[in-house]
Protein backbone atom coordinates (compact mmCIF):
# COMPACT_ATOMS: atom_id res chain seq x y z
CA UNK A 1 0.00 0.00 0.00
CA UNK A 2 2.90 2.36 0.72
CA UNK A 3 4.18 2.05 -2.84
CA UNK A 4 0.93 3.54 -4.18
CA UNK A 5 1.55 6.89 -2.44
CA UNK A 6 4.41 8.84 -4.04
CA UNK A 7 4.49 11.58 -1.36
CA UNK A 8 4.59 9.04 1.44
CA UNK A 9 7.42 7.10 -0.22
CA UNK A 10 9.49 10.30 -0.39
CA UNK A 11 8.72 10.99 3.25
CA UNK A 12 9.96 7.54 4.24
CA UNK A 13 13.14 7.99 2.21
CA UNK A 14 14.31 11.28 3.66
CA UNK A 15 12.58 12.27 6.91
CA UNK A 16 12.62 11.17 10.57
CA UNK A 17 9.34 9.29 10.89
CA UNK A 18 7.60 6.58 12.88
CA UNK A 19 5.68 3.93 10.97
CA UNK A 20 3.11 1.60 12.52
CA UNK A 21 2.96 -1.51 10.34
CA UNK A 22 0.05 -3.93 10.89
CA UNK A 23 0.78 -7.63 10.53
CA UNK A 24 -0.47 -9.49 7.46
CA UNK A 25 -3.14 -11.14 9.60
CA UNK A 26 -4.38 -7.74 10.80
CA UNK A 27 -4.61 -6.47 7.22
CA UNK A 28 -6.45 -9.58 6.07
CA UNK A 29 -9.01 -9.25 8.87
CA UNK A 30 -9.75 -5.65 7.85
CA UNK A 31 -9.27 -6.05 4.10
CA UNK A 32 -12.94 -5.40 3.28
CA UNK A 33 -12.83 -2.11 5.20
CA UNK A 34 -9.46 -1.08 3.70
CA UNK A 35 -10.52 -1.38 0.04
CA UNK A 36 -10.98 2.11 -1.38
CA UNK A 37 -9.26 3.74 1.61
CA UNK A 38 -5.70 2.55 1.02
CA UNK A 39 -4.01 5.98 0.87
CA UNK A 40 -5.82 7.27 3.96
CA UNK A 41 -5.07 4.13 5.92
CA UNK A 42 -1.35 4.21 5.12
CA UNK A 43 -0.96 7.92 5.92
CA UNK A 44 -2.73 7.42 9.25
CA UNK A 45 -0.04 4.90 10.23
CA UNK A 46 2.83 7.41 9.87
CA UNK A 47 4.02 10.07 12.33
CA UNK A 48 6.28 12.91 11.20
CA UNK A 49 8.56 12.35 14.17
CA UNK A 50 10.52 9.60 15.88
CA UNK A 51 8.32 8.31 18.70
CA UNK A 52 10.59 6.48 21.13
CA UNK A 53 8.93 4.22 23.68
CA UNK A 54 10.59 6.24 26.42
CA UNK A 55 8.35 9.18 25.46
CA UNK A 56 5.08 7.22 25.92
CA UNK A 57 2.37 8.13 26.82
CA UNK A 58 1.52 11.01 24.50
CA UNK A 59 -0.59 11.81 21.47
CA UNK A 60 0.64 12.88 18.05
CA UNK A 61 -0.84 14.08 14.76
CA UNK A 62 -0.37 11.79 11.77
CA UNK A 63 0.53 12.31 8.13
CA UNK A 64 -3.17 12.15 7.23
CA UNK A 65 -4.52 15.70 7.12
CA UNK A 66 -7.69 16.26 9.12
CA UNK A 67 -7.46 12.99 11.03
CA UNK A 68 -7.55 12.64 14.82
CA UNK A 69 -4.23 12.13 16.60
CA UNK A 70 -2.81 8.76 17.53
CA UNK A 71 -2.69 7.97 21.24
CA UNK A 72 0.47 6.17 22.30
CA UNK A 73 0.27 4.54 25.71
CA UNK A 74 2.07 2.11 27.98
CA UNK A 75 0.62 -0.53 30.27
CA UNK A 76 2.79 -1.51 33.22
CA UNK A 77 2.66 -4.63 35.34
CA UNK A 78 4.63 -6.27 38.16
CA UNK A 79 8.37 -5.81 38.03
CA UNK A 80 9.56 -4.35 34.75
CA UNK A 81 6.72 -5.76 32.64
CA UNK A 82 5.40 -3.29 30.07
CA UNK A 83 3.17 -3.37 26.99
CA UNK A 84 2.99 -0.53 24.49
CA UNK A 85 -0.04 0.51 22.45
CA UNK A 86 -1.04 2.91 19.71
CA UNK A 87 -4.78 3.54 20.01
CA UNK A 88 -6.17 0.01 20.54
CA UNK A 89 -3.35 -1.76 18.70
CA UNK A 90 -0.63 -3.55 20.64
CA UNK A 91 2.97 -2.98 19.57
CA UNK A 92 4.51 -6.41 18.99
CA UNK A 93 8.08 -5.39 18.15
CA UNK A 94 10.15 -2.48 16.88
CA UNK A 95 12.95 -1.93 14.37
CA UNK A 96 15.34 1.01 13.91
CA UNK A 97 16.14 2.35 10.44
CA UNK A 98 18.11 5.23 8.93
CA UNK A 99 16.80 7.40 6.08
CA UNK A 100 18.84 8.33 3.01
CA UNK A 101 19.60 11.63 4.77
CA UNK A 102 20.97 9.80 7.80
CA UNK A 103 18.03 10.54 10.10
CA UNK A 104 16.66 7.92 12.46
CA UNK A 105 13.36 6.21 11.71
CA UNK A 106 11.26 3.79 13.74
CA UNK A 107 9.07 0.90 12.63
CA UNK A 108 6.56 -0.58 15.06
CA UNK A 109 4.76 -3.80 14.14
CA UNK A 110 1.19 -3.74 15.50
CA UNK A 111 -1.58 -6.33 15.76
CA UNK A 112 -4.47 -4.21 14.43
CA UNK A 113 -5.25 -1.76 11.64
CA UNK A 114 -5.56 1.85 12.81
CA UNK A 115 -8.83 3.12 11.36
CA UNK A 116 -8.79 6.83 10.53
CA UNK A 117 -11.79 9.13 10.49
CA UNK A 118 -11.59 12.30 8.40
CA UNK A 119 -14.48 14.73 8.69
CA UNK A 120 -16.02 16.11 5.50
CA UNK A 121 -16.70 19.35 7.37
CA UNK A 122 -14.49 21.74 9.32
CA UNK A 123 -15.86 20.38 12.61
CA UNK A 124 -15.75 16.82 13.95
CA UNK A 125 -19.07 15.07 14.64
CA UNK A 126 -20.70 15.24 18.03
CA UNK A 127 -21.56 12.07 19.93
CA UNK A 128 -25.16 12.67 18.87
CA UNK A 129 -24.11 12.67 15.20
CA UNK A 130 -22.37 9.33 15.69
CA UNK A 131 -25.37 7.92 17.54
CA UNK A 132 -27.93 9.21 15.05
CA UNK A 133 -26.18 8.15 11.82
CA UNK A 134 -23.37 5.73 12.69
CA UNK A 135 -23.17 4.36 9.14
CA UNK A 136 -21.84 7.72 7.90
CA UNK A 137 -18.82 7.35 10.16
CA UNK A 138 -17.96 3.71 9.44
CA UNK A 139 -19.59 2.48 12.66
CA UNK A 140 -21.04 -0.93 11.82
CA UNK A 141 -22.63 -1.80 15.16
CA UNK A 142 -26.38 -1.01 15.47
CA UNK A 143 -27.12 1.82 17.91
CA UNK A 144 -30.76 2.51 17.04
CA UNK A 145 -32.25 1.14 20.28
CA UNK A 146 -30.18 3.47 22.42
CA UNK A 147 -30.70 6.33 19.98
CA UNK A 148 -34.47 5.84 20.38
CA UNK A 149 -34.27 6.06 24.18
CA UNK A 150 -32.01 9.13 24.13
CA UNK A 151 -34.52 10.99 21.97
CA UNK A 152 -37.49 9.68 23.94
CA UNK A 153 -35.96 11.04 27.15
CA UNK A 154 -34.98 14.33 25.50
CA UNK A 155 -31.28 13.88 26.28
CA UNK A 156 -29.85 15.09 22.97
CA UNK A 157 -28.07 18.00 24.67
CA UNK A 158 -26.06 15.56 26.77
CA UNK A 159 -24.54 14.09 23.61
CA UNK A 160 -23.78 17.49 22.10
CA UNK A 161 -21.68 18.87 24.95
CA UNK A 162 -18.36 20.42 24.03
CA UNK A 163 -15.13 19.17 25.55
CA UNK A 164 -13.24 15.92 25.91
CA UNK A 165 -15.86 13.40 26.99
CA UNK A 166 -16.18 9.62 26.89
CA UNK A 167 -19.49 7.96 25.99
CA UNK A 168 -20.45 4.32 26.49
CA UNK A 169 -23.08 3.30 23.93
CA UNK A 170 -24.79 -0.10 24.22
CA UNK A 171 -25.11 -1.95 20.94
CA UNK A 172 -28.60 -2.95 19.85
CA UNK A 173 -30.99 -2.47 16.95
CA UNK A 174 -34.34 -0.81 17.59
CA UNK A 175 -35.94 -1.85 14.31
CA UNK A 176 -38.25 -4.83 14.66
CA UNK A 177 -38.31 -4.78 18.46
CA UNK A 178 -41.34 -4.15 20.63
CA UNK A 179 -41.88 -1.05 22.75
CA UNK A 180 -40.98 -3.10 25.83
CA UNK A 181 -37.69 -4.01 24.17
CA UNK A 182 -36.94 -0.32 23.70
CA UNK A 183 -37.72 0.36 27.36
CA UNK A 184 -35.22 -2.32 28.40
CA UNK A 185 -32.39 -0.04 27.30
CA UNK A 186 -32.59 1.54 30.76
CA UNK A 187 -31.69 -1.86 32.20
CA UNK A 188 -28.43 -1.83 30.21
CA UNK A 189 -27.34 1.66 31.15
CA UNK A 190 -28.95 4.82 32.52
CA UNK A 191 -28.76 7.53 29.84
CA UNK A 192 -28.75 10.28 32.46
CA UNK A 193 -26.06 8.97 34.78
CA UNK A 194 -23.85 6.29 33.30
CA UNK A 195 -22.95 7.02 29.70
CA UNK A 196 -20.78 10.10 30.10
CA UNK A 197 -17.46 10.85 31.74
CA UNK A 198 -17.16 14.62 31.55
CA UNK A 199 -13.81 16.16 30.60
CA UNK A 200 -12.17 12.75 30.30
CA UNK A 201 -10.96 10.74 27.32
CA UNK A 202 -10.24 7.06 27.91
CA UNK A 203 -7.88 4.98 25.78
CA UNK A 204 -9.04 1.39 25.47
CA UNK A 205 -6.13 -1.05 25.75
From TrEMBL:
User: Where do the FAS1 domain residues begin and end?
Assistant: 1-110
Q: What domain of life does the native source organism fall in?
A: Eukaryota
What InterPro entries does this protein's entry cite? FAS1_dom_sf, FAS1_domain
Spans through the membrane: none
Q: What is this protein called?
A: Fasciclin-1
Q: Which organism is it from?
A: Trichonephila inaurata madagascariensis
Taxonomic lineage of the native organism: Eukaryota, Metazoa, Ecdysozoa, Arthropoda, Chelicerata
Report which gene this protein is encoded by.
X975_09065
